[in-house]
Amino acid sequence: MPGKRIFITGGASGLGKAIACKYAGAGYRVCIGDVHEKRGLTTVAELTALGADAFFIRCDITRLEDLLEVKNQIVSRWQGLDLVVNNAGIAGTAGPIDQVALDDWQQVLDVNLLGVVRGCQTFTPLFKQQGSGYFVNIASAAGLMNAPQMSGYNVSKAGVIALSETLKHELAPFNIGISVVCPAFFKTNLTESMKSTIDGLSQRLGRLMARSAISAADIANDIFTAVDSGSFWVLSHKAERRLWLLKRYLPVVFDVLMKKKIAKLFAAPGPANANTAATPPR
């Protein structure tokens, strides 16, 4: 009997690819949606070489019509869907609130927050019709901790958390489950899409990601376990999980620790005239 079916936005690389590999290994049929066609086709080729039923669809999550086309193709090919992972996102523009343009705010919110909204809007009617389904929304520890100089990204990810908490209760009567994933630093290609008014910030963040003991595969494993058990929160990084609990129950201690962490990350910021180039959104 054919396996269950999963659709992953931004599934061509990084965490999305790790999730695709994890679920393909568990016998799922995998659809990858991404704007990077070459990466997507390469990933699908790797999955099919391992025996998975996998295919790629070019999908820009800022276009509702793209997601609707994905749904139509999946229903035509597989007659339904079991799991949607709203993973695609960008780093946005880092910098002080008075130096980041509103166009940059609109871009990061359109991709990171409204992209998840579009994904949920598109597939909820199908899940209701089926009487079952599951959403995994990729947020970030940034949406819980809210460090300075990253306001656009923080707000976009906090919005994903709020949306997920809302849908947890709204969709439960329809047998639709949801998990929200809040990773901290891990090795990924997110900094490809980062712009910054702070000299050298993307390089510092890249080094933190490279040094992380948590990998994309680790987070994919945690997601698999959470979906299997119906757990809402996926918090793979122990240190950030402790910080989040401190913020909730001992906010004064949290503020002291955050000040120390922030001082290290933003030490000796450069002038607001060195912008890094951004790649197109994932």
Automatic annotation (TrEMBL):
Record's keyword annotation contains Electron transport: no
Name of one Pfam family that matches: adh_short
Keyword field: Oxidoreductase
Record-linked Gene3D superfamilies: NAD(P)-binding Rossmann-like Domain
InterPro entries linked: NAD(P)-bd_dom_sf, SDR_fam
This protein's record includes keyword Oxidoreductase: yes
Protein family: Belongs to the short-chain dehydrogenases/reductases (SDR) family.
Protein name in the entry: SDR family oxidoreductase
Organism: Thalassomonas haliotis
